[in-house]
Each structure stands twice: as C-alpha cells, then as structure tokens.
C-alpha cells in the first residue's frame, strides 16, 4: 500500500497533466456567415485638414426663439485639393453623426457671441448637416480663448483661400474685370454717325442752288445790256 503522501503527490501530478492537456486543446469552428471588410467613405478623401478643434455647437431655433445644442465634438476646416473650396465639418462624439456641414464663402462674418472670448456665431445660407439645404444661424463655444482665436484666424485664412484660389470666385472676378473694361471702352468718344437727312431738306438745298444760279444768270444779262 502507498502512503498518503505518495497518493497526494500522484493526484497532483494527474491534475497537472489534465490541465496541460486541456490548455493545449484549441478547437476551431468555421463561421456560418463570412462578413467581408467594408470600406467606409467619409467624402473627406480628397480634402486636407486645415484645423481641428474640440468645441460645442449650437443652432438658433426660429420657432422657439432660443439657442439649442447641436452637438459636441471636433470641428474641422477641410480644403479640397483640386477645387480649393473649404467647408466646415463637425461630427458628434461616439455616434459620429454630422452636426455641421457647409461651405465657406468670403461674405460670412464671424461675430463674437454674447461678449464671450470663447464663443462666436455666424450665419450660413446653406447647411447640409440634415442632408437637406437649410439656412442656419450657428454658434460655437471653445474650451479656452486660445482655441477660439485659432479658429477665428484659420476661418479668415480659409476665406482668403476661397476668394483668391477657388474657381467659382476667380471666374466672377475675371468676368467683372472684363465687363468694366468693356464699359470703359464704351465711354470713349464715339465715332460720328452719318445721319440720314429727310428728302425734303435735300430738295430745299437743291432749290436754293438752282435759285442762286438763276440770279447769277439774270445779273449777267443785266450787265451785258448795260455794256451795249
């Protein structure tokens, strides 16, 4: 018969061997449905990021006449590499739902909101955050004045890019220059135009000429009679 100590040692060794066998066993199951990897396009592939700042966005509700929070997240200025258009894009945290999506135009004015050094407001003619074109009055609040000043400077820089490099606005400027040039040409002294005179005046002039000839002939006759 084995002693109790030997039997306990044997049981411990058997348990260790069993654990080693179970740990080495790795069953593999093929999935019933295979899900392919899907690439998600954000429509930002052809754009470069000018600035990205965390902020909180508000919109003015004209029905309730009050400001309503639209979302908190990173607001970005994205410049198109080919067209040189710049748009404002902001997505909410976690859900990544778009809460601001509009193009920057040179006539947008960035105003200080409620006298705060951390907030601005501006009016947008066409915002596509809700996948429909809407006119919105937006306000944004940053965490500190430094981020607010950075946003204001980058927004002005984006407006300058659009005004000087975007084909939509450079074509308008060239057309205005051409129209001003043509207007300046039109203001030059015009060439004299031949005005057709009515036939009555022409007949009068011919009659006067004939009368003058007749008078001269009469004078010649009188002079000839006197000499005789």
From TrEMBL:
Location of the region described as Disordered in the Swiss-Prot/TrEMBL record: 1-31, 172-208
GO MF entries: GTPase activator activity
Organism lineage: Eukaryota, Metazoa, Ecdysozoa, Arthropoda, Hexapoda
Cross-referenced Pfam families: Ran_BP1
Assembly and binders: Interacts with RAN (via C-terminus of GTP-bound form) but not with GDP-bound RAN. Identified in a complex composed of RAN, RANGAP1 and RANBP1. Identified in a complex that contains TNPO1, RAN and RANBP1. Identified in a complex that contains CSE1L, KPNA2, RAN and RANBP1. Identified in a complex with nucleotide-free RAN and RCC1.
Protein known as: Ran-specific GTPase-activating protein
Source organism: Parnassius apollo
The RanBD1 domain, residue ranges: 28-164
Family, per entry: Belongs to the RANBP1 family.
A cellular component term, taken from the record's GO annotations: nuclear pore
Signal sequence coordinates: none
Domain WH1 per the UniProt entry, residue ranges: 42-162
